[in-house]
Amino acid sequence: MSMRGVVLVIIVVAVAAAGGWVAWMVRYRPLTVFAWQTRAALRTAGLRKVHVAAPAGEQTVFVGGHGPVVMLLHGAGDNAGTWFKVVPQLIGSHTLVVPDLAGHGGSAPRRGPIDIAQILGGVEAELAALAPGERVALVGNSLGAWVAMLVAQRHPDRVATVVCIDGGAMRGSNLAARILPRDRREARESVAQTRDPGSPPVPGFVIDDIVRQARTGPLARLAATAGTMGGYVLDESQLRAIRVPVRLIWGASDRLMPLDYARRMQAAIPGATLVTLDRCGHVPQIECPDALVAALRQALATRSE
To answer: 225 with 116: CB under 8 angstroms?
Structure first.
């Protein structure tokens, strides 16, 4: 065989091997592939990846755009890529700061337990490094909403508005919440709690990956510090003391953190408003991004003076 033939064979074998690896990843690690795709979409939309030093170690943040600063904070077990459908619609009118929370995505710590103090410290470091002296709108989903409220409580002079999407800093009331499923049945129940019944069903191979990540992923690492979380829950008197404008946006179909939670939080926080999104669950930025962006634009139009 000629040298050209040998090279061609090598190329064919390499392409086949790469194709097989991709097929394996899609089948057995679909959540990882989805994360790769969504994070690439942030770059395509115009964000650049930067790194910020924080107490827990180096944090990964996607930054870009023009205008008032908006920080988008994802939920537990997720990463910055969750905002990939929202970023293209906001980047033309806002400067976006979209971090991987500590222990998630590309942010340290890469191993071991994750606690709220590390996540909060990462967000504070990112604000200091990427928006020094500016009043920032904090938009958080689920855990991100909890952290946003903690930042507003600690640094009200740095926060223009807090937008909580299906999350907050007060104690929840859903005793049936399924956070760490152990098998397919529990995983399907967990997914059902977070989505509208009319949304497309989640394939079985994705359900299997949810179970796998529940054992070793960021959610499990965060759950390992559950005993320390009580110190970061705000009671009603602390919620009443918040003077930063708070806007609540809620998926009406969310059963993980039902509307009752949002209504209790609205009653406790002076001036808080609530907008519900029909046929949408716990993660509106993925399930109903257009409805969320419409509500977000209205919420971001209100900034504290």
So the answer is: yes
Q: For 172-223, write each residue's pLDDT tens digit.
A: 866 667 789 999 999 999 999 999 999 999 999 999 999 999 999 999 999 9
Domains plus CATH for the chain?
Answer: 24-300 (3.40.50.1820)
Residue from 30, 78, 37 nearest 212 by CA = 30
Sheet strands side by side (includes 59-65) = 48-52, 59-65, 95-99, 69-73, 136-141, 159-165, 246-251, 273-277
Which one-letter DSSP state was computed for residue 109? P
pTM of the model: 0.92
Helix (H, G, I), strand (E, B) or coil at 18: helix
Q: What is the CA radius of gyration of the chain?
A: 20
Residues 229-271 have pLDDT tens digits of 999 999 999 999 998 999 999 999 999 999 999 999 999 999 9
Q: Is 266 helix (H, G, I), strand (E, B) or coil?
A: helix
Residues contacting 80, CB < 8 A, separation 6+: 39, 42, 60, 61, 62, 72, 74, 98, 99, 100, 105
Q: Are 77 and 104 in contact (CB under 8 A)?
A: yes
Mark out the alpha helices in 29-70 (DSSP H runs): 30-44
Query: How far is the C-alpha of 216 from the C-alpha of 197, rounded, in Å?
Result: 28
Helix (H) or strand (E) holding 220: helix 218-223
